[in-house]
Design a protein that fits this description.
Length: 129
């Protein structure tokens, strides 16, 4: 299930990600500037570490991103500078879909297929004799 979400950050007023629904994470897709004549920086503070996510100004008023934040992370967003920032994204469920792209799963399937192939070959040889 996907729930689209946005929030507006005023300078130096944090938004805590702890408001996420249980069993969801937040996928941040877009950051935009409310006043293109000013500049602001978007930071994520995760477990007391501060990370610069984007700088928006008259030259770059919009950034497309592909960042995911897990509910269990102690994360908050804060805007620094002279303008408000709008953050867009969506919530997604935490359930991992089974995928053959997972290398370990692929190796396990390949191993089983190889073993079955060997057993069938042995049975075929026995029938010939």
């Amino acid at each position: 299930m996907i729930i689209f979400w946005s929030f507006q950050l005023k300078p130096n007023e944090p938004y805590k990600l702890s408001s996420l629904p249980e069993f969801y994470n937040f996928h941040l897709t877009t950051v935009t500037l409310s006043n293109p004549k000013k500049q602001a920086n978007l930071f994520a503070i995760i477990d007391k570490q501060k990370y610069l996510i984007a700088t928006v100004n008259s030259h770059f008023i919009l950034h497309n991103l592909d960042l995911r934040f897990h509910r269990s992370q102690k994360c908050e967003f804060i805007a620094e500078g002279g303008a408000e920032i709008t953050v867009l994204g969506y919530y997604t469920t935490l359930k991992k879909e089974k995928s053959i792209d997972d290398e370990d799963e692929f190796k396990a399937i390949a191993f089983k297929a190889n073993k079955i192939s060997q057993e069938l070959e042995e049975l075929h040889k026995k029938k010939k004799h």
